[in-house]
Amino acid sequence: MTVHLTAADYGAVLPEIIVLTGALVLMLLDVLLPRRRVEATTGVALLALALAFVASAHLWIVDTGPAFPHGLGAMITSDRFAQFFNFALLISSALAILLSPPFVRTSHFDPGEFFALILFATSGMMLMAAGINLIVLFLSIELLSLSLYILSGFDRSRPRSQEAGFKYFLLSSFASAFLVYGMALVYGATGTTALRGIVRCLGGHACHGAVSSPFVLIGIALMAVGFSFKISIVPFHMWTPDVYEGAPTPVTAFMSVATKAAVFAAFLRVFNYALGSESTKWFGILWALAIVTMVVGNVLALSQTNMKRMLAYSGIAHAGYVLVAMSSTNRLGVTAVAFYFLVYAFMNVGAFVVVLVLESRGEVGDEIRTYSGLFSRSPLLASATAIFMFSLAGFPPTAGFFAKYYAFAAAVQAGHTELAIIGVLTSVVSLVYYLRVVVVMFMQPAEAGEPSVRPAWTSQIALASSVAGTMIVGIVPWFYNLALQAVQSIFHYTS
Predict the structure, then answer these.
(1) CA-to-CA distance for 129 and 137, rounded, in angstroms?
(2) 280-284, 319-323, 465-469: segment of lowest average pLDDT
(3) Theoretical Cys-Cys bridge with 429: which of 279, 298, 317, 318, CB 3.0 to 4.6 Å?
(4) How big is the CA angle at 333 (ends 327 and 338), to the nearest 5 degrees?
(5) Which long-range contacts (CB under 8 A, 24 or more apart) does 105-111 make?
(6) Residue 366 has what pLDDT?
(7) Whole-prediction pTM
(8) What is the spatial distance between Cα 107 and Cα 325, in angstroms, rounded to a whole number?
(9) What does the pLDDT read at residue 419?
(10) Tell me, what's the pLDDT at 107?
């Protein structure tokens, strides 16, 4: 089959091309600039992300509805759903890069390689959000995974980082195997890897394959396992705490948000749309996974004394909340998922700032006990961290409250009140470990002789942006309306 590519095909993936080009430029600069490489590479990485953001905004504006073309032989779409997730992914990547320079200096990382790998991972995530073909989705998830394997073990001087990289590689490889086998079975049953073709075939239209219910059912189960590994769904979460703890903190902050956002975007396209007619076969799986993930994530987070491990289990619990919205199988639920990750990009990356700031000063930044008296040492840093903890717990009027509200409201509207009730109860449990961090910072005295803490200027920008996003995104209805428009567009392109 011959595929003729036009300017429109390349335009559909312009944001991804910009990010990939930025990664290649960073690798060249790393060789050509022997001095001040951290400043130069940070600037180039942020410039590439800014240009990609502008390109995504342009594609959002020119999206005119069902007639809007796909790109690269109908393998990728540039619909508003993809662009909305691009916004969340680019914001997450930019915040992680802004947090990185002090850590890169103290850890003696190679800045060009480090930032290039972040951009490679970001491009893979963006392609996942835009993929409308199982082949593209699998290749995209491997691009992001390969980059994150290296980033997790990037700190070669620390055994924990090496362990994190190895564990992530080993278990994620198993997840990829489950995913590709599941995709192969769906292809065998429907005769196509295109999501639109799968929709038509399972919907009763003529197709090249012979739809076989056992093949489809097994394929759905295997893909659910593969996606669940990637987004830390219980019981496929075992790698998460160890990888989050051992990986360099900027990498942990980045992957804790961006990986989940990208995989959930693909998860939604495959399950809620391509396999939407088979929802009775997979709803029970997601229903059970949502409940066990919310309960286990929150309960295990209670006993953690390490900030990164606590946020790892917190992230597992939040994946459960997102599954509640996804299990609703209605437009409100899909909108809640998209909105959740825009909010999560700000509040969860921001929660890692305190760890990064203390580690860049040579302190032990991942132990919660070391935050004693932080308010007296750095009132702004402690106050910002408290805002992130309140938002993650779901306190109004932070954006985290609205994200959870929309997720649980979608479940109630779909008639799954039990999911919303369990979500609310587990959110109450989460108050214990989130507020424990606030109590340590504000109510326990600092040790004698502890110096004041002043974040680097790049960290201050990331901190201010995260606080602004955490406080504004939920209150201003414009952001939720963007998520609603994004979800409306996906119905045109995958049906």
Answers:
(1) 8
(2) 280-284
(3) 298
(4) 115
(5) 105/38, 105/360, 106/359, 106/360, 106/362, 107/155, 107/157, 107/248, 109/154, 109/155, 109/248, 110/30, 111/30, 111/37, 111/38, 111/41, 111/42
(6) 72
(7) 0.92
(8) 40
(9) 92
(10) 74
